[in-house]
Design a protein that fits this description.
Length: 112
Amino acid sequence: MTAKTAAERKRAQREREAERLKRLGHRVMQLELYQGTADAIDRLCQIGGFEQPAEVITLLIHSADQIAKRDQSRFAELVSVTRHEASISEGMAQRLDTEGAAEADRLGRAEA
C-alpha cells in the first residue's frame, strides 16, 4: 500500500466533509441585509457573546420555532412589523396644499 499524496488526502477530506454536510441536510442561504438589520445582528452577537452572526441567527430561528409551536399568537406578536406613524404639522400641510395648488395651476397653464 502506497502512502497518499497531500492532494489525495485533501480530496478525501473534502469528500468526507461533503458527505457529512449532506447527511445533516446542510444548505447555504444568501442573505441581503440593510444597515439597521446588520446593526441589530451585531448588537445581539455582542450582548449574547456570539462570535459568528450565524450562531445568533440559528438560535433565534430555533427559538422562534419553539414559540410558534407553543403559542401562535405570541409568535405573531414576535414577528409583527412595528409601524411608525408618520404625521406632518399643520404648517407643513398648508405649505403642501399651497405648493401643490401652484404646481397644478402651472401645469394647467402649460397644457393650454
